[in-house]
Amino acid sequence: MTIIKSKGYVTHYPLQAIDEELAYKLLMSPTTLDRHNSNALQLFDCHCHCLGEYLSLTNLDGEKLTWLVESFLGSLHVGDIAVLEEYIVRQRSIAVTEMISGLVDLVPGLQPVIWSRARLPHFEQTWQESKHKLDPEIVSFWSGWKVKAKKGKSVYLKLVAMYHSHGPEFTKAFHEAIRRDSLKRAKVASGMINKLAKYISEQSFRFPPAAFQSPEMMEDFFEHYFWHYQNIEYERNEDPELNARTFRTMRNLIIRCFLKTDVWSADEDAIVLPAGKSKAGSELNIKKNKHGIEIKDKLLTEVPVHVTDIQAIDLLYGEITSDLSCIEKWGLSEALAIRKAQRIRVREAGDGMLLERVVRNPQNRLNFEKLGFANICRTFEDEGMCTTNDARRRYGIRLPALALKLGLPTTYSLLPFQCLLTLYHPEITTTFMDDLVIWDGPKRVSFLKTDKGYELIGFKDRRGSKNSEQKILLHPKAAALVRMVEEITEPLRQYLKKQGDPTWQKLFLTCGRSFNYPKTADSNILNRTAVDKNAFRREVFIARLSPHTVKRGDDLVDFIKKLSITRVRAQSAVADYIQNHSLPRLARKLGHAHMNRDLLDSYLPTAIYDFFATRYVRIFQKGIICEAMKDSKYLLRASKFDDFDQMHEFLSRYTLKEVPENLKTREENRLANGEIVEVGVSVSAESMTALMSIRKAINLSKTPHAVRGLAKYWAAVCDTVEKYILKSRDKLLHAHLEIASKNCNPSAYESMIHAVS
């Protein structure tokens, strides 16, 4: 039996068995460990309350008080009142004995109780003889009101005030209704529930328990609660639209938990339903950048709300994909670096010896290399992870450098892995990663090998309770990353196991700056504030990202500020849409249960979306019809342009055209609404020479990440046209292609393809 299940919820409990005057007297008593007095007194209060004892300065009895203290010490020692670490038990025990000793002059016959290890058997015996006096109802009260979500997360509701205002039965019914509903949810909406419970307890004079069985009174209750909620929330955030939206969520919760289950007697229509006002996707995520240009601020890449065709092509076929490529190359580089360090540690351990356990003088500033790196590795592998103080005694004081060399997952070490996982699988959200539990005790629960490959199981709360569980069949690269993270975090996992800390079951663990106590890695660790305030960290990211991007200076710093799991996820999904032009596929990539055009509008400006309907993109989406030009007055003109914008204008005007009139009547070239399916392409030897030269220049580029999107686009057009010609039986088309292959001149375009738009 353990009465107090978690120290977290008990802080909301006022003293129940010790009156205010006595509590003040006890807290003012001088003790060895003053800072522990308040918590110790609460534990003692719980003990007295559960035994049915109520204490005040007017009713204190020396013999009874001695019995209460000794039984409390026994209860605390065996873990019946709460499960605490041994040193905390000792601290709380001494604090209570010293506080009670301060009453010797006020309570006749009171003999001070002295805590000692030798007397623990006596205290335990006293407790065992007292347990029969426990009041089950009060024990239940102190056990808290626990609810557990579908994904296994437990929280304790704040129902103490309701318990006192509306009684045990009403509170139990309230708690049970929430408990049953929470088992179907990905997360417990504890904030909303606690707000509702607080209002009910405050309005007990107006709405006693009987009111909740009266449909007429419930109409009054819901009206009052609606306006109370709006007023309170408006004082906090001054956002009526948000408050209306959250109240609709509250309304649904009340209907699910209390009305449909007949816990309360009321009609659903009695609850006010605020009008819903939601912005269209095209209106979301719009802000002005530092140049005063309106942009969609959802991706890593800034996308202007208003764009020309050239800007659209450069963005869609250049910046969006190159920025994503930068993240992938950086992520792989960082992931492989820490993996390499971890494997070197394991290998070096085989050649090392255990370090002697000596306390080193920090003033010596010992370099860990002097100890012998192999010896350090051997010691670490044998003894496992340790926290800062022990690490300093074992290895010296250069712990951050040592953690890096040992391949330990420090503050930012796992961010590259998380970015890569999201890049390969945009359906993975930050919540999914933060809550990802690989183990449930001895059982592996979410990273499982199947006939099709490795499957990752997690939750995405915004999909709703029925669809919140996500099973993701991992790309082989992603599966390899998960296995790497498991191995890299294993020392931390073993340490947490020894401490009895359930955090060991999580996948993403970090030891902070070096040898800190392990905790769950925060997927949002890098943000604008972190980049602005931490100059050293900013310079590290600049150095690590620079080899993979053309961005420099402020542009690179701004890019780093945007580097987040959320933006990588969005960018990856959009990049896939650019390549595949499928809205249903986009929805699946993002892990959305339903497809919605509004979805894409929230990521990209409407102007960009509309661009996909132009001939520039239809050539890839729907198909082409190629016609050979028999002669051209623009002979060799295509290789004599000063910049790529001029080249683009020429190719756009004389190469990509609408379908010729003589082919528009063909039924197979029309959609149901009359839209032309194909794009017409005029093929000449000159235009094909230009296209093939552009493509080859890109392939030969020594800085492929610097190639602009416009050039990549025309290289893709070249691929599409070439495939068409090779499948065609048109001899003239084949002749043009043959001439172009012979005259291909990539050097003429080398400088142009790298020009900045």
From TrEMBL:
Top-level taxon of the source organism: Bacteria
Name the record gives this protein: Uncharacterized protein
Organism encoding this protein: Pseudomonas fragi
Phylogenetic lineage: Bacteria, Pseudomonadati, Pseudomonadota, Gammaproteobacteria, Pseudomonadales
